[in-house]
Amino acid sequence: DSAEASPSVVFENIEACSPNCLQMLLENISGLTRDADFTVEVIPKINVAVATFIKSIDTKEFVEKCLQDKRVREFKMTARLLESTQTIKAENLPDSISSDYLTVYFESARNGGGPVSDVQLFPEENSAIITFCDHKGNT
């Protein structure tokens, strides 16, 4: 089952921990190096960060280590695997964006993509909903 676990871990309630502090904390817990082994995306609007592991690790075990870590508990953060989904929302898109461009972009392996089955553009919101053929193409 661990082989199918998400390569991404969600950290919630991160406001007490700066992005640099969080990255160092994750390096300390995992023994890995940011940028080479994992990336961290901070989403301040919803008080969340997502760590995505480039290097293959047991993310379930990593989540357990995080939940037991003294510093993580002091910061009152939580950690969980990112759920798999077949649909994502892309926001802040340029006015001129086309569904064909988004399809090609999100199908690019370099961007972590996979086969796209549908793109719905919402020009009034400068956003789009991208649906993948399976849940592996939305990292």
UniProtKB/TrEMBL annotation:
<dbReference type="InterPro" id="IPR057050">
    <property type="entry name" value="RRM_PARP14_2"/>
</dbReference>
<feature type="domain" description="PARP14 second RRM">
    <location>
        <begin position="5"/>
        <end position="83"/>
    </location>
</feature>
<dbReference type="Pfam" id="PF23085">
    <property type="entry name" value="RRM_PARP14_3"/>
</dbReference>
<dbReference type="InterPro" id="IPR012677">
    <property type="entry name" value="Nucleotide-bd_a/b_plait_sf"/>
</dbReference>
<protein>
    <submittedName>
        <fullName>PAR14 polymerase</fullName>
    </submittedName>
</protein>
<dbReference type="Pfam" id="PF23245">
    <property type="entry name" value="RRM_PARP14_2"/>
</dbReference>
